[in-house]
């Protein structure tokens, strides 16, 4: 007789050590608990832990998936195996079990893992970096520098650590950093945030985006975003119970079509999620774009979340236009930024969210339970560099030179670079080389040319990819030279 029925959960109870007896109890499965499954548990007999499908020696009772094993506290074998009392399991099973009052539950039932992000795999960046390592390839895929950050910044962090800044700091972030940021933002974009309430330091922009979307998006809400879209956006919206709605930035100039955006806005639109400078396309929002956004906001209650992590990496004399520089937008916007890009410290994972106080308060409600407090020594070091040089113009010049060097090196190749106004990513059209799709071509590049790049298709949700790859030029000159040699060696294959 099967131990688990469709509408019943079977509980095998193993009694006190030394008196191995196994009883079987069927009881109605509580709603939603039909998928309780045991993973590694089995019946316990004379120290043997048997897995699902194995039978106990004395009773020939077969433990199957979907059975719950309930073991008496007195069974020392269970404790020997380092099993632990599972409170959540207890709460669900004991309540319904006939022996509920007397049996603590040492089982480890596992609800069958219905994924919350079923169509999400390992990020394309992690995967390409893994492949690059596997093939000993030059890695122009993931967006991080292959050179060091300023030694003075490392020393400043070390000094702060030596001074004893090694414990939790304020949930909002250290006040020195929030004040430096408030001053910087006011100077650069003309909007004053109150450092006491309106700036929240987060564990990178990623946590800032996540906490913001968790705080603002309710089940059933829609979030309008632009594809190609940075890969962290849609999963965060989905985890919040919302639905991503995509407007398309089209090859080759990837400008926003505001009429298309307007058509996507509905009463359910909770957030417009924008990104400038834009990863992966390297485009910037213009003054006209911000005015169009402001006009659109007049017709909706939607909030704006603006990912501006590349705010200081802008080229050719252009200026980054923050949404906070536009008062009507700033009144209902969260600006998310990061220190990792500006200071070549992507691994330190410190970022921040700036928003009006009521919105910030909601973000902080989430942030306090996601990260609570971000590395204090690093924050203090950043506070000094932000205060000393709020404009950070050098980093823009630095990356413009990298971009230009990379473009010059590619000049003799079959790749056609697209316009890049900011970020440290260069898109190239490779259609003169092959008809392969971007993922296939990226795979071939890493395997045969020893060069890792990022295809655009993982940034796309509703539209097909063009024949475009993204290269990260935040690399030493020598890396760029070697990468370009490999790219220039490619000849058309069909
Ligand atoms: C557009 C964009 N937003 C957010 C992030 C994440 O920033 P952080 O490393 O500070 O979490 C990145 C990193 O690549 C990015 O490109």
What keyword list fits this structure?
494 residues, disordered N terminus, 20 strands, binds pyridoxal-5'-phosphate, Aspartate Aminotransferase, domain 2, 4-stranded antiparallel beta sheet, single chain, 3 domains, 33% helix, 15 helices, Aspartate Aminotransferase, domain 1, 7-stranded mixed beta sheet, alpha/beta
CATH class of the largest domain: Alpha Beta
Number of domains: 3
Q: Assign the structural class, choosing from mainly alpha, mainly beta, alpha/beta, alpha+beta, or little secondary structure.
A: alpha/beta
* Radius of gyration, taken over Cα atoms and rounded to an integer in Å: 28 Å
Q: Reading side by side through the largest sheet, how are the strands ordered? A: 9-15-14-13-12-10-11
Total count of strands: 20
**CATH homologous superfamily label of the largest domain:** Type I PLP-dependent aspartate aminotransferase-like (Major domain)
Bound small molecules, which ones? pyridoxal-5'-phosphate
Spans of at least 5 consecutive residues with low confidence: 1-112
Overall pLDDT metric: 82
Report the portion of residues in β strands: 15-25%
């Amino acid at each position: 007789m099967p131990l688990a029925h469709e509408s019943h959960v079977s509980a095998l109870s193993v009694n006190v050590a030394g008196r191995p007896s196994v009883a079987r109890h069927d009881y109605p499965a509580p709603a939603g608990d039909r998928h309780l499954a045991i993973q590694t548990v089995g019946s316990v007999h004379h120290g043997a832990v048997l897995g699902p499908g194995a039978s106990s020696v004395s009773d020939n009772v077969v433990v199957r998936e979907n059975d719950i094993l309930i073991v008496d506290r007195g069974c020392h074998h269970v404790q020997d195996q380092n099993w632990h009392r599972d409170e959540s399991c207890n709460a669900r099973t004991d309540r319904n079990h006939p022996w509920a009052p007397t049996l603590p539950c040492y089982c480890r039932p596992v609800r069958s893992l219905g994924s919350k992000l079923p169509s999400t795999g390992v990020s394309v960046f992690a995967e390409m970096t893994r492949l690059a390592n596997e093939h000993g390839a030059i890695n122009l895929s993931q967006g991080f520098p292959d050179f060091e950050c300023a030694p003075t910044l490392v020393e400043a962090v070390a000094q702060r650590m030596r001074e004893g800044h090694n414990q939790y700091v304020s949930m909002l972030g250290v006040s020195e950093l929030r004040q430096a940021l408030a001053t910087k933002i006011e100077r650069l974009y003309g909007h004053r945030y109150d450092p006491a309430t309106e700036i929240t330091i987060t564990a990178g922009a990623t946590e800032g985006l996540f906490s913001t979307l968790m705080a603002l998006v309710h089940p059933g809400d829609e979030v309008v975003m632009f594809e190609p879209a940075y890969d962290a956006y849609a999963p965060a919206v989905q985890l919040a119970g919302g639905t991503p709605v995509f407007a398309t930035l089209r090859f080759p100039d990837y400008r926003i079509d505001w009429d298309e955006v307007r058509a996507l806005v509905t009463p359910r639109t909770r957030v417009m999620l924008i990104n400038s400078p834009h990863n992966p396309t390297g485009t910037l929002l213009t003054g006209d774009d911000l005015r169009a956004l402001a006009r659109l906001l007049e017709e909706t209650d939607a909030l704006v979340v603006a990912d501006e992590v590349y705010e200081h990496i802008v080229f050719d004399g252009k200026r980054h236009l923050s949404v906070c520089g536009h008062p009507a937008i700033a009144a209902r916007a969260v600006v998310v930024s990061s220190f990792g890009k500006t200071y070549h410290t992507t691994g330190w994972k410190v970022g921040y969210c700036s928003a009006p106080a009521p919105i910030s308060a909601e973000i902080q409600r989430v942030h306090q339970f996601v990260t609570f407090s971000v590395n204090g020594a690093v924050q203090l070091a950043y506070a000094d560099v932000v205060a000393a040089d709020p404009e950070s113009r050098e980093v823009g010049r630095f990356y413009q030179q990298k971009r230009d060097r990379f473009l010059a090196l590619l000049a003799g190749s079959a790749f056609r670079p697209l316009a890049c106004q900011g970020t440290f990513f260069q898109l190239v059209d490779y259609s003169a080389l092959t008809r392969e799709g971007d993922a296939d071509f990226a795979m071939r590049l890493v395997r045969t040319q020893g060069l890792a790049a990022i295809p655009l298709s993982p940034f796309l949700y509703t539209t097909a990819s063009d024949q475009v790859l993204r290269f990260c030029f935040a690399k030493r000159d020598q890396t760029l030279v070697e990468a370009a040699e490999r790219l220039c060696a490619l000849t058309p294959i069909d």
